[in-house]
Known about the structure:
Number of domains: 1
CATH superfamily: RNA polymerase II/Efflux pump adaptor protein, barrel-sandwich hybrid domain
Strand content: 25-35%
Mean pLDDT: 78
Strand order of the largest sheet: 1-7-6-3
Number of strands: 7
Largest sheet: 4 strands, antiparallel
Helix content: under 10%
Number of helices: 2
CATH architecture: Beta Barrel
Order of helices and strands: EEEEEEHEH
Radius of gyration: 13 Å
Amino acid sequence: xxxxxxxxxxxxxxxxxxxxxxxxxxxxxxxxxxxxxxxxxxxxxxxxxxxxxxxxxxxxxxxxxxxxxxxxxxxxxxxxxxxxxxxxxxxxxxxxxx
Length: 98
């Protein structure tokens, strides 16, 4: 499962701060903050589960991939949900595109 942040209207961001990730993370917990010049956006865990990977591109000079290619390489974390088939509260592809 990919956690994708749509950033079509956002300008270049300054930095990303990831909280320490270990074990299971609950839905709604802040997993990352994206900092811009004058504000920040908190990224929340979409489901209960375990974060198994953070997109390495976001830790390099290529971090703008989040803004430039949100549907492809702009994922933030890879999550293994604790309830694999429970899609309650998640956006469908159609609703995401709206």
